[in-house]
Amino acid sequence: MHIQPIVKETEQELLKIELYALHLHSPQQASSFIKLISIHFPLTDLSHLKRIKKTTELLDDNKNCINLYGLIAKTSDVKKEDLVNFLLQNFNNDNGQNFDSDYFNQRIIKISASKYPATDKKKFDIWKTLWPMNFHNDYQKHDIPLNDIEIQEIFSIMNKLKNLSVELNSSKNVGLIYDPKKKLTTLQTDLNSLTDSHPLNHCILQLINASAKNYVIKLQKSKVGDKRKGLDCESYLLKDMDVFVLKEPCIMCSMALVHSRVSRIFYVENTEEGGLEGLLKVHLVPSLNHHYRAFKLIYD
Ligand SMILES: [Zn+2]
């Protein structure tokens, strides 16, 4: 038995990827460019890259010329002529100016960027010179190994959850919320809630809902202090909490865990539509403002 941390694919060396970028002619154009392009070309697996690059060029008359470039798509995903047609149809109305295909043909250029996010500041400082990137220094926390006592504790909690699943006689996902500081389970899947398979009834969302209800009850019972102050302090429902589930959560539930600021998630079985190792690693998306740790328990 061992526990596998779900970490980002990273490279020690800079690995480049080629993309198309549009040389933009004004900040206003950059703003409408981002709105349009982020919907049609989301670049989900390259979310460590910024959409806009700004460079300053010193001209002969000693004046600075600012150049803006907007990232469009990987050259492997789309042909330049298709991009030109797309932009002609969708991006041709900037302050009454009309652009023709020559305009876009000249302004769509190939650029190189880092395929992977930088996991330390030193790499970040070098790799971002190619194309601007986001950086979160909390990647280092993903490398901290679990100690033997933690591993024993984690397997023991997961075994309780497995027993609960057997007791329920259901193939549906079940889970619990665990407070690692107090060493206690604060919530577990409601026995009566497994009948409905609606996505909003997914195991993780049920646990978050239940924890929100408990929080409201706790607030109502609290007679001392300013309620608003209490809300500010504890408004993140799963701060410092661990979540245990039998199956890897979907992308929606993985995002709900970001919003509730969970600390760690442990699961046994990965799923095709999973949000932690299946379709996406939501807990490691650089542009999100919280990154929890995810672990898969492997029973050898
Ligand atoms: Zn879900």
UniProtKB/TrEMBL annotation:
Keyword Aminoacyl-tRNA synthetase in record: no
InterPro entries assigned to the protein according to its UniProt record, in alphabetical order: CMP_dCMP_dom (IPR002125), Cytidine_deaminase-like (IPR016193)
Signal sequence annotation: none
GO BP term (any one): tRNA processing
One cellular component (GO) term of this entry: nucleus
Keywords assigned by UniProt, alphabetized: tRNA processing
A GO MF term: tRNA-specific adenosine-34 deaminase activity
Domain CMP/dCMP-type deaminase: 149-287
Superkingdom of source: Eukaryota
Family statement: Belongs to the cytidine and deoxycytidylate deaminase family. ADAT3 subfamily.
Protein name: Adenosine deaminase, tRNA-specific 3
